[in-house]
Amino acid sequence: MPAGHPPVPAGPVADVKVAKSDAADGRTVAEVWAQKAALKDKQVTIHGTVVKFTANVLGKNWLHLRDGSGSREKADDDVTVTTGDAAAVGDVVTVAGTVRLDRDFGSGYSYAVMVEEAKVTK
């Protein structure tokens, strides 16, 4: 697994397929990874399935989102999102937030790409 993309254990929702958001700034998870330089500090909307949720770490809720795009081998099938909103593993949600690159929170938690300050809707 490349640095900057912590592994997410495969669970019952590991194989997901969710349609791309039809929002003007809608992207798939793989598109966010592929277009990361152009999307830096820009707003994106992603429609996907929550595969991991951790509440209230560093004052934020953290989730991993997959939509069926990308691959584990290329490590472009999962994006980490921070939000003030709650979600549960298995929820199909739309997140709208800002793409951030090369975020290092210490203790081995660094992310090459993530979406921060997102609004989550179900």
**Low-pLDDT segments:** none
Cα-atom radius of gyration: 13 Å
Strand content: 35-45%
Outline type: globular
> What is the CATH-assigned architecture?
Beta Barrel
Distance between the termini: 30 Å
Question: SS-based structural class?
Answer: mainly beta
Summed over residues and divided by their number, the pLDDT gives a mean of 90
**How many helical elements?**
2
Largest beta-sheet characterization: 5 strands, mixed, barrel
Name of the level-1 CATH class: Mainly Beta
CATH fold-level assignment: OB fold (Dihydrolipoamide Acetyltransferase, E2P)
How are the strands of the largest sheet arranged? Answer: 1-2-3-5-4
Domain unit count: 1
SSE succession: HHEEEEE
Strand runs, count: 5
- Considering the protein shown, what is the CATH homologous superfamily? Nucleic acid-binding proteins
Give the helix level as a range of percent: under 10%
Topology (elements, then pairings):
Blueprint: H1 29-34, H2 36-39, E1 43-57, E2 60-66, E3 79-83, E4 92-104, E5 110-121
Parallel strand pairs: 3-5
Antiparallel strand pairs: 1-2, 1-4, 2-3, 4-5
What features would you describe in this structure?
The protein is mostly beta strands and 122 residues long. It has a single domain (29-121), classed as Beta Barrel (OB fold (Dihydrolipoamide Acetyltransferase, E2P)). The chain has helices spanning 29-34, 36-39; strands spanning 43-57, 60-66, 79-83, 92-104, 110-121. The chain has a 5-stranded mixed β-barrel with strand order 1-2-3-5-4.
